[in-house]
Amino acid sequence: MPEPDFSDARVPIHLRQYVVEQDYDRYDEVDQAVWRFILLHTYGQLRDHAHPAYADGFGQAGMRVDRIPRVSEMDRALSRFGWGAVCVDGFIPPRAFQELQAQRILPIAAEIRRSNHLAYTPAPDIVHEAAGHAPIVADPQYAGYLQRIGEVGSRAFSLPQDVAVQEAVRALSVAKERVAPGSDALSRAEATLAEAIAGAGEVSEAAQVARLHWWTVEYGLVGAMDAPRLYGAGLLSSLGEGHACLRGGAEHRPLSLACVETAFDITRPQPQLFVVPSLGELVAHVNALAERLAQRIGGRVALSRALQSEQLATLRLDGGLDVMGTVVELPQQDAPPAWVRLAGRRAIADAREVLVGPIAPEDRPGVDVLPVLPLGPLADGRPVSALTHAEIARAFSPSGAGLRYASGVQLSGRLQRQLAVNGRPRTVELVGARVERDGRVLLSAAHGAGAPAAHALPLGGALRQVVAGATLGAFHPEQPRSGLRAPAIRPAGPHAALDALYSRGHRHAREREALLALRRGVAAYPSDWLLRWNLLESLLSLGVEGREVDALANELRALEVSYAHREPIAMGLRSLGLDAA
After folding, report:
1. Residue 485 β-bridge partners
2. Average pLDDT taken over every residue of the chain
């Protein structure tokens, strides 16, 4: 049975739908051999070229070279650094990934790449997520940056076209992992991605953060320009790029915020990499990027980006109140806008709890958040948050005129009740709410079946900040765990027989005669180079020489040529002190 993940209780309720159980028994001996080969040649060889935290943190993160890690063990190990790990099923939405990082939780994909994609896989797998990301979390500067970029990214606005690009990338990554090169399915996936990128147009805030994340966390170099060290997870988990970048396989550029102007392709090796002098300088770059985003700019620009995104946003008002909803309309000329129209699921909250809502239009009638929200100070120049209980009661009494804002917006209605927190007015509930400006009626509350009994007005008017998403997890309905287990079950049939050979090789790795007997079974799999390499490594470790060892080495050299040197066979031969083809 899968082992429960220790961090589940810390995963926000709306993200638990992405959590899966790591069913460790589903990893077979081929999977274990894949992990071991990659780690022998990445951790074993790249650690001398990586940031020192990599070598120091590998074991501290709960990993070993000789077996795939259990995510629950990693979680307990990372807790010493104030972090955790949780198992997810491959690609999850970028915002969900970033929210988990902001909570100091590493999402670990449970799948593992296939044996014919050892050098590099575009699909998320446990080699990349665990062996690439986790070791350097032991470094507090890197860990702080990882959390900070998660915070900024989870509050950055995307654009509708981003979703099309993300889905196309996911489909192409899966196709490259599962189908043969040159197949129609792969060609279609490549064409779909090219079309999505061509139609993307403007680079969204979320895409800019994703690019900074890619050129640092995924493919970053650190140190001197002429002799940098690796710290990016994509490099530390890739047999191909990890070694190639040390041999001049990619152009090295100094890291600056200009890197967000450089797109990346997750399915191909990167032509350039960016070098930061020290991990301690990373936070300055993400903070500089944040200064460009709606979350720091505020005002009309921020609201316009929220409008363009067509996604949930949080409007942070004076007085410490947040209003959550989807921005669907702004006045065309105002700067700053005098009002904003919100749709969909809406709520009012303070820093600790949701005060009103969220109630979607299809829910039962009740108190809903005012869909047209007046912004700015009152006509007398005071902030709305300064109103007293008595002033509110007078304004919305039968003889009162409601509230008039400096912008000319007029709000009226019949007071149903006031909500106070610690004696301070926080929201006002109005029946028959009406919002108008310069003769235009912006809202005239409807009555009858399906209409809310009242609308709630937050007692805050000046817009302080606009961020993507909800600032409180309680805004979202609780989502159950997916119930999925990962990795996927391997198909029965020929693979089971092959796995049995790998298993025999693992069990009898120190028995000369058993290994020589296994040699005869290898012939049934003429294209499987990893099984041959494992067998050759075991025989050489026992001091075996002669015809069988030479034959295995020659078969590997022939396979290296037949695979057009795309597989890391030469690397494996050299690690055994043998010449490649």
Report:
1. 21
2. 88
